[in-house]
Write the structure tokens for this entry.
Amino acid sequence: MTAEAITAGRLRRARYRSRVIWTALVLLAAGFAVTLMLGQSFTPPQDVLRVLAGQEVPGASFTVGQLRLPRAVLAILAGLSFGLGGAAFQIMLRNPLASPDIIGISSGASAAAVFAIVVMGLDGAAVSVFAVVAGLGVAIAIYALSFRGGVAGTRLILVGIGVQAMMQSFISYTLSRAPSWDLQEAIRWLAGSLNGAQLAQAVPVLLSLLVFGGLLVMRTRDLEALRLGDDAASALGTDVGRTRAVVVVAAVGLIAVATAVVGPISFVAFLAGPIAARIVGPNGSALLPAALVGAALVLAGDYAGQFLLPGRYPVGVVTGALGAPYLIYLIIHVNRTGASL
Amino acid sequence: MTEAATIPLRSPARARLLWLVVVLAALLLLGALSVAIGTRQVGLDDILAGLRGEVGTIAQAAVSARIPRTVLAVLAGASLGLSGALMQGVTRNPLADPGILGVNTGAALAVVVAVAWFQISAAQSFIWVAILGAGATAVFVYAIGSLGRGGATPLKLALAGTATSIALYSLVVAVMLTRGDIAGGLQAWQIGGVGGATFARMGPVLPFLAAGLLLAMASARKLNSLALGDEMAAGLGERVALARAMAALSAILLCGATTAVCGPIGFVGLIVPHLCRLLVGVDHRWLLPFSALTGAALLVASDVAGRIIARPAELDVGIVTAFIGAPFFIWIVRRQRVRDL
């Protein structure tokens, strides 16, 4: 193979990947537009644009400006966070099943958030901070507990499963101590829901996306190097320890902030990475595409839960139910290729 | 099983008899504590009167309400311990447990669906539904976990179980959200507890538990053969598929019926067989009855602890077992070399 052929191949792959990203962006924008226009009633596009421009439109100002817009914005931001955080863990641990919602990090963040809301009576940004700190604590604990002369991926996942069980029962306990909190509301939040979304809630999620998401995207190359194994990554000039630390902090931050605001929307972090990897194929990193897939999942799941199903369901129930068949497919597929399990 | 290398196959008969006496004594003592300790302080004379069935004073009534609770804790603990030992034997997997494998959630989903959609409330049909749910989930998780290279490794089983459990749980939430009227009761049942037990509610389960127990004892010898590996067992004239099916059926009967009454209680089935292997070795003819006794003792102890820790309120036993069990799970994961897992 000549140098030109290699360069041409590299160029082709990069072009394919950027085509995928652009297509996803266009689709996402289209989905965003549809959710703004179409709910219980139809709002014509010119009215939507006028509302977005800040004008007062009778009727549309409330439905679009107060109900649909915050919901759609929050859906996209949370989806981006879950997708990025989940894919970062899956790539780093080299296992599609090692996503934060399966290895207990999401449960840790939601346990902290429930505790902060129910017992300490906090709300808003304070809950996010608490969830991030607890999420990091849980992540460090899982890492430390699975350390035995090095961390093996298998052991880390299993320890995470144990921690996850403990966090779940802590959540049940906290909820049972809180008779004043409307149970229905609690179940809804724990499933992950965008009910009563407000634009102000989007601010911490946006900030965490800028900070933590930015950190992750800047580390994409090092993260992809980790995929080859620690030794190969160091040989390629990646500082393995530092990359790991940055990735864990950033991914946990993304997941925890989003969880504190919208609840642990099940399986988005888990699904986004593998779906993106299938679309992108061997043509480059699946990190950014995974974020877009996550946003699309939450947006579509929320829309389906509100309007396409009989009865109204929170988005987490939709993604959880959708995730089940995919999960089975994934386990079967991973097992058959005998990859990392 | 790695234990076989470190633990003698047979402890001397005398040691085993000694342990039998110790466990029985502990169970009796804990049973007495469970009747004596609770939110309300009662005197010895009230306890004796309550045991005779008098309910003249509040104290005596409290004592007589604790008796069925204690009996239920003994039955549930014995069933779960036995069921865990059977599952670990059938799957030859140190991490098998009705909770980790998602079997409890399967039973819970079946019960929730039956209550919400089919208006089933008779205890008898409740149990059938729970057993069917448990059975279907067990088969499903095992089938997924054993696909691909290396058969049903502990990691694959644990992941398949956890992921299935998350997916099923979001279906549970979906059903509960549509039925606000029964959500409170179902959520309380979801945590898993033995509070509020009556003999009338326990009655219908007894035949199932008895059947499970008989099947379990009949499969003890077969499990010993299975422990040698399928080829060896077949070589010894064991019908491997039949032996597996029998032990698995018994495990499902036991944990499904228990879940129907108490709700999902995790980790008893995980801890108990490990402790018992340390005490009496790996011979299932001893291991199974010991697991039943130790399981009963553990559940009664957890129930009593839950009443003491959270005075004047109570901690449901499912939460206590999770907080004892999850660290234990992590300990097992750390103890074994990853390759064995």
Remarks:
- The longest helix of chain B spans residues 58-91.
- Residues 3-63+78-335 of chain B form a domain with the ABC transporter involved in vitamin B12 uptake, BtuC fold (CATH 1.10.3470.10).
